[in-house]
Amino acid sequence: MTASKIVAAAASGAGSDPVDIDDIFSVDLYEGTGRYSGTRAEQTITNGIDFSTEGGMLLVQGRGTGTGNGARSPIFSTPELGVGNFLYGTANNAKNSDQSSTYANTGPNQYNTDGFKLGDERDGWGAANDLSTPDYVSYSFRKAKKFFDIVTWTGNSTAGRQIAHNLGSVPGMIWVKGLSLTSDWTVYHRGVDASNPEQYRLYLNTTAARVDQTNPWNDTAPTATHFTLGTDSYVNASGNTYIAYIFAHNNNDGEFGPDGDQDVIKCGSYTGSGAAGKAVNVGFEPQFVFTKRADGLSSWIINNSMTGLAHTGTEYHVVDEQTGASTSSTANMKATSSGFEIDSTGSGYNSNGSNYVYMAIRRGPLAVPEDATKVFDVNYSGSSNIERYSTGFDSDLNINTDASQNSSNYLLSRLVGRTYLNTATNDQAASYSAGIKAFSEFNDKVNIDSGFWGNTDYIIGWDWRRAPGYFDVVIYKGNDTAGRTIAHNLGVVPEMMWVKKVNGAKPWLVYHKDLAAQPAQKYLQLEESDALIDDISIWNDTAPTSSVFTVGDSNNHNGTSTNQVALLFASAPGVSKVGNYTGTGNSNITVDCGFSSGARFVLIKRTDASGSWWVADTERGLVSGNDHLLELDTASQQITNYNMVEPSSSGFIVNGGSNNDNSWNASGGAYIFYAIA
Predict the structure, then answer these.
(1) Do residues 165 and 224 lie in contact, with contact meaning Cβ atoms separated by under 8 Å?
(2) For every residue of 317-331, which 3-state class applies, written as one string?
(3) pTM of the entire structure?
């Protein structure tokens, strides 16, 4: 996440101020810049997390094995440990125990009100900024009621010792680590046993199964105000110091989001099925899932939405692995609108009859956006090749093309994974390696290989971030059942939907609220310029709702075992507008979208007759008299020097009369549009 994240209110969470998940949790990707000697640099990660005022925990892992000691991530760092100090997730060492001195410049050396700063040296096992690794993922947890808390204490070897906390609810999971002695990480999890989880311990730094022991938790369940310790030396030896990381479990009692009533964290369990397609419902779409088999040998595994949880080519991270920090694989775990789905049948995720515990953290933001620049970006190279450009947010959807020549219009969705679709064809998704890059490289960046488009200089990229009331993406598997409902998280009724089969050559099916009087009986095709088509079977003659949309039994979008992607768009006040207008032929039409500074992006399609899906944007010239227009339904290069549209402070103007090239304003013509401020 980024400094430009959408927030519901003040991040302090004081009093009745609502808190967004983006205020208290962030997944960040970055390149290492430190080294032993030579050119090296500190770097600051700005992610909106207030470590300095509120406190919190930072977990850093190397992505891949690397060449230096930084490969032995993860490390845990927090202001409570002191600058330059850290703990290993992979080992039982005391705080910073294998260093000859405190390496304040090997990892996080400053905690800020909006993130953290990393030192410029690569040294010690705890390096979090190693140039030779070179890529990292970090997880920032901010202390907040009903989300996360940290406490420290000195042991006294007394059974029944109560440790107070400020979580404000009963913990769902607790990690305890001795700071002044060699000791394993002791873990409590509410899902480790159906009846008496307080009688068991897990070890964060090992693959061991649960152990039935009285001493760690004194066989006493935690409460909303404290947890209880026994005499175990790993948690309560006399004179030794300890730290506990305490995670909440929201059960319809979360106090997050603009109305202060949404859950953001779940600590639960599931029973493995041994069959692909195991679905786990947590009540929301997660951006972070932490899992462990409790009743057998298995690693602690992190899947996150920046590098994984997609439906192809995911990357996951092993917390207790000594020699490697991340692993790429097929999509073992996939995010769904209500939780996650497991396609693996192995013991690490889904052994038949086995018990698995998890912690899931909700995807943000939770509030409807108020600033379009936080959720939409247009980037046009214009005169030079681009390889990586910044959007100012973590993109969930990218469409890019070479405007200067006949080129495909490549569509990438973070949830679909490392494949691309083409808006100008009905082709199935294709994999890529060099060429177009995934979104999982670095924060705020979209990567397009400089060699992919050759030496052309006119690459255009449009990027969307998902947000309530604005834009959502849903992945689902077809089942050939008419009237099937697909859940989504848009939070409002979708006004436009694009649905495409991913693993087959089928058309792009488009729903728009203004397709005649009964839009659920009609559809358009994104890759075609045809007029609207009558077919009640596509949407099952059922209008979408604020929680689901309905599909028929067509193999195009609901065939058995087909993988489908649905892109859902809505009108967010002052940010986006889905609408329609009727052409005049002779006079200009001012389309009022409710914007304050005009539209940066306009998509228009004629629906009662043939007409392309035309796109104009301010980066290439949404101006008076010299429009640069592209068609999503063809591979043609952009056309220039047209006069079909011009800016207006409230939205855009469609030209008429002698100033009109007629493609967007034929007399009596029916048009739909989608505009973004």
Answers:
(1) no
(2) EECCCCCCCEEEECC
(3) 0.93
The two three-digit tokens of residue 572, written as one number: 């967010």
The string of DSSP letters for 455-491 reads T-S-EEEEEE--BTTTEEEEEEE----TTEEEE---S
Within 8 A by CB and 6+ apart from 504, the residues are 428, 559, 562
Grouping H, G, I as helix, E, B as strand and the rest as coil, residue 236 is helix
User: How many Cβ atoms sit within 10 Å of the Cβ of residue 226?
Assistant: 16
- Name which of 110, 109, 87 is nearest 97 in CA terms: 87
Q: Are 149 and 51 in contact (CB under 8 A)?
A: no
Q: Which of 627-640 are b and which e, b meaning 16 or more Cβ less than 10 Å from the residue's Cβ? A: bbbbbbbbbbbbbe
Contact 167, 266 (CB under 8 A): no
Cα separation, 275 vs 620, in Å, equals 50
pLDDT > 70: percent of the chain = 87
SS3 of residue 81 by DSSP? helix
Note whether 554 and 538 are within 8 A (CB).
yes
Residue found under tokens 């047209």: 642
Can you read off the two tokens belonging to residue 129? 């900024």
CA–CA separation, 562 and 275 (whole Å): 18
pLDDT at 296: 95
Kindly report the number of other CB atoms within 10 A of residue 517's CB atom.
7
In this prediction, residue 392 carries a pLDDT of: 87
Q: Round to whole Å and give the CA distance between 597 and 575.
A: 10
The one-character DSSP state at 675 is E
